[in-house]
Design goal:
Structural class: mainly alpha
Order of helices and strands: HHHHHH
Number of strands: 0
Helix content: 55-70%
Strand content: under 5%
Radius of gyration: 19 Å
Number of helices: 6
Distance between the termini: 28 Å
């Protein structure tokens, strides 16, 4: 079934995939930065932010921009893979600052309505909606900047 895969293509060599490594490292650094920035700004250590969406910088933006730039650096900026990854990156960033941010704003309004309605708030069915799901434009730009920096700092294998 997988006879076309050589030993060099095995899963255990995935660390040699430069675009994948750049994207993963960029995502991880963005998630760690969220915890650090939250500690500095709000004076609160919140390790759960490592696994959350929303906040500064956007790890989604960071990951897709890093992926796209790494593909451009290795495959060429005129390659179809770079074109695909660039469009993918723009869609993800647009969604993060648009639809997902609107979803968070709607969740805030609904949560506030529930807080002001004790009958609903005390209901067993009520579950507070997650408000931090999207990004402000500056959070998306911050993630994109990190996504540019990582492939420039990590040399291709």
């Amino acid at each position: 079934m997988f006879s076309h895969l050589s030993t060099a293509d095995s899963f255990f060599n995935v660390y040699k995939n430069y675009p994948l490594v750049c994207s993963a490292v960029s995502w991880l650094i963005a998630q760690i930065l969220k915890v650090i920035i939250n500690l500095i700004v709000h004076k609160e250590l919140s390790p759960k932010l490592i696994w959350s969406s929303g906040g500064m910088p956007s790890s989604h933006s960071s990951a897709v921009v890093s992926l796209s730039l790494a593909i451009g650096l290795t495959q060429g900026f005129l390659s179809p893979l770079f074109a695909i990854s660039s469009i993918f990156a723009f869609i993800v960033m647009y969604d993060a600052a648009g639809v997902r941010r609107e979803t968070g704003d709607i969740a805030k309004v609904l949560n506030n309505l529930v807080i002001n309605n004790p009958e609903v708030e005390n209901s067993e069915e009520y579950k507070e909606l997650k408000e931090l799901v999207g990004h402000t434009p500056i959070e998306v730009v911050g993630g994109a900047a990190l996504g540019i920096a990582i492939p420039l700092l990590i040399k291709p294998f």
